[in-house]
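From the pipeline queue, job 12 of 40. The input is one protein chain; the requested action is below.

Action: predict structure.
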Amino acid sequence: MNMITQEAKKKSRKHRRYPELLYLLNKLGINHKLIPPRTPWHNRKVERSHRNDQRYFYDWETFRNIEELNTKLKGHLEWSNNKTMRTLDYKSPMQLLSEKLELKSIH
């Protein structure tokens, strides 16, 4: 399994910015790949996710304070991570992740 993230502007910052993430990925046996900054054709799934967050959350919701934002955002993330998607063979992102982690633990 691979995890792809965007490369920081300065390569030396990568490990300082995400040491916990890199440790966890290594522990789970997940290969971490970097893509160059400002290359949306490489990270189209992330760009699509950001566009959907904008369309279905930020353009519709209002919040008076950070606590209200966090509460509403938690609900939105729960919804978006558990809705089925045609591009995922009609599975939700959480279902797909669960299946991949189960397969990883079997091997």
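Job complete. The chain is about 55% helix and 10% strand.
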